[in-house]
Amino acid sequence: MKRLNAPIVTAETIRGMEDMSFFTHALIFDDLLIVAQRETNCFVLKSSEGLIVIDAIWPSKPAFDAITAAIRDVGWNPARIRKLVLTHGHVDHTGCGKWIVEQFQARTYLSAADDIFWQEHPAKPDRPETWKDFPIHVHVKDGDTITLGDKTIFVCETPGHTPGGLSYLFPVQENGEMHMAGLWGGTTPPRTKEGVLQYLRSLDYFLREAKRSGVDVALTNHTAVDNGLERIAYSRKRMSYMPNIYVVGQDGFQRFCQVFYTMSYEMLGRLEGRGISDRKAGDEAIDFTLD
């Protein structure tokens, strides 16, 4: 059976990132909720002292409403949101953080480099509604931890997709069985050779840390990478005797992340095959498709 080695990104993918007419969600572990629109995910991690939101979809009130409605739907209280943790400074991840901060006084976390990047290089410079619109309270760096109650998120600096991109490792559980989740923060490689090489160095580092930590749960922040909408649909209807589709095993997680190597090598091939000045119409938009 022929299977794709990397996601196909189209103009429809780009448009889909801003489509706030569709949302879905699923409780994929006892303590982890995924909320998605057509192209972008966020996660809500439950701790003994409240909720941690990881990324925030898009800067729109409907995205905020969808996240809070999903939290209520699984029996949690959105008023217990205490932290907003961001992978990087692109608009489809900083997302609706303004409302989360204003409504719940959540503390925000991002690298210093990407806080500056978000401010000075907005992904949509011609659209003020997508510019930086809330403060970052804590600048985190490699080796830091973000703790709330009984949950700790381990921070890995993984620059490449953005100057200060971050990836995260954190424990989750199902029926008392503990697992370790890995979230690679910046999906697509950049469009310069040095940028791609940095991306690959970061990916090598992240996978070493994932192996050392025993990561066996594969998470992504874009649905195109992992058949994300299908995984959510499965999880919503999953019977008690059926396997958790997010648990792939330690070797499986390493294999899963090969898609990021594939996209990087494809980008290097394109960069070597044609100059930056030869970009086709629409290439700049694709830079931010799977942010």
Q: Supply Rg.
A: 18 Å
Spatial strand order of the main sheet: 1-2-3-4-5-6-7
The computed structural class is alpha/beta
pLDDT averaged over residues: 93
Number of helices: 10
- The rounded distance between the terminal residues' Cα atoms is 30 Å
Number of distinct beta strands: 12
| N-to-C SSE string, H for helix and E for strand | HEEEEHEHHEHEEEEEHEHHHH
Shape: globular
Major β-sheet profile: 7 strands, mixed
Beta-strand residue percentage: 15-25%
The helical percent reads 25-40%
Can you give a write-up of this model?
It is a single chain. This protein has 291 residues and is of the alpha/beta class. It is built from 10 helices and 12 strands. A 7-stranded mixed sheet has the order 1-2-3-4-5-6-7, with helices on both faces. The protein has a 5-stranded mixed sheet with strand order 8-9-10-11-12. Helix 6 packs antiparallel against helix 9 (258-273).
In short:
The protein has 291 residues and is of the alpha/beta class.
Spell out the key features of this protein.
alpha/beta, 5-stranded mixed β-sheet, 10 helices
How are the SSEs placed, and which strands pair?
Elements lengths: L10 H6 L7 E6 L2 E5 L4 E7 L2 E5 L6 H13 L7 E5 L5 H4 L2 H8 L2 E4 L1 H9 L17 E2 L5 E4 L2 E7 L8 E9 L2 E7 L9 H21 L3 E3 L8 H10 L12 H7 L1 H16 L9 H4 L5
Parallel strand pairs: 4-5, 5-6, 6-7, 11-12
Antiparallel strand pairs: 1-2, 2-3, 3-4, 8-9, 9-10, 10-11
